[in-house]
Design brief:
The chain has 286 residues and is an alpha/beta fold. Helices cover 42% and strands 17% of the residues. It has helices at 14-23, 37-45, 67-79, 92-102, 115-131, 144-155, 207-214, 217-240, 257-271, and strands at 2-8, 27-29, 53-57, 84-89, 135-138, 165-172, 183-186, 244-251, 276-280.
């Protein structure tokens, strides 16, 4: 069981860390009171694998001392529940800049205390938590994509590609381009099975239609070029921090050409190691 306690400085990026871990399959609870952690751990341990990856956020919002957190961690140890603390920090100047950009109020910047004083006070208060951290991430110079990459390195399953899902959609241009599409490819230049009476009632999922399309050199050439393009793009989208990539392939009605090519593209993406789903939006339209 992966049991992660996320803590750190306000404005350092704990919310982004929690969101990325949630994308990676963790069950995330924000601002959980320390006293409830042992009871929550009991529920997770009794869940028979349902909650085998858990991340709990505990920070200065829970109070200006962390005695309760250390008591809870001691109880987790007595229960035999292994945990690790992930501490997120950034430089004082960076945190001040982020707060000025968002116009949020620092939890400790009250009663005439300046933002710089609040950050320094929080650093001092959190020092004992930082000392017990198994992982410390400084987000001062980290882009969102690099932060996500660091979390994948620490908590991924060893298969980085799994962090980005690819959805391949077939559609008919006569019904409009899918609004969620990131990449759109038009395959109306390919020979159209619609004009063959025996193929017209079939779809691109039927072998006769697929065989008809892939016996043409332009289909083979298109797939070769598209596979080269995707081999180039997929790692870049992954490195940029994208979690879902939608590829839309369209023909006139969305029944034959786009369907067959969508299946071929989805199979290629899976071969490259990315989880891929296929959806045929207009295939059953009359």
């Amino acid at each position: 069981m992966d049991f992660i306690i996320i803590s750190g400085l306000s404005g350092a990026g704990k919310s982004k860390v929690a969101s990325f871990l949630e994308d990676m399959g963790f069950y995330v609870v924000d601002n959980m009171p320390a006293a409830l952690m042992p009871r929550f751990a009991e529920l997770c341990l009794a869940g028979k694998g349902k909650y085998d990856r858990v991340a709990l956020v505990n920070d200065i919002r829970g109070g200006q001392t962390f005695d309760g957190l250390f008591d809870a961690l001691g109880e987790l140890e007595r229960m035999g529940c292994a945990y690790k603390i992930l501490f997120v920090e950034a430089s004082t100047d960076t945190i001040i800049k982020r707060y000025k950009e968002t116009r949020r109020i620092h939890p400790l910047a009250r009663h005439g205390r300046s933002l710089a004083e609040a950050v320094q006070q929080e650093k001092a208060t959190l020092a004992p938590v930082r000392q017990r951290a198994a992982y410390i991430i400084d987000t001062t110079a980290l882009s969102t994509a690099k932060l996500r990459g660091e979390l994948l390195r620490l908590f991924g399953d060893g298969k980085e590609e799994r962090a980005m899902a690819v959805n391949v959609i077939s559609f008919g241009f006569k019904y409009g381009i899918p609004i969620e599409a990131d990449l759109v490819f038009d395959v109306r230049f390919l020979p159209n099975p619609f004009y063959l009476a025996e193929l017209r009632p079939q779809t691109g999922l039927d072998e006769p239609v697929r065989s008809f399309l892939f016996r043409y050199q332009q289909t083979l050439d298109f797939m070769s070029h598209l596979e080269s393009l995707l081999s180039f793009l997929l790692p870049l989208y992954l490195a940029e921090g994208k979690t879902v990539l939608v590829i839309a392939i369209g023909c006139t009605g969305g029944q034959h050409r786009s369907v067959a090519l969508t299946r071929a593209v989805a199979e290629f993406v899976r071969q490259k190691g990315y989880p891929a789903s296929e959806n045929h939006r207009d295939m059953t339209r009359s």
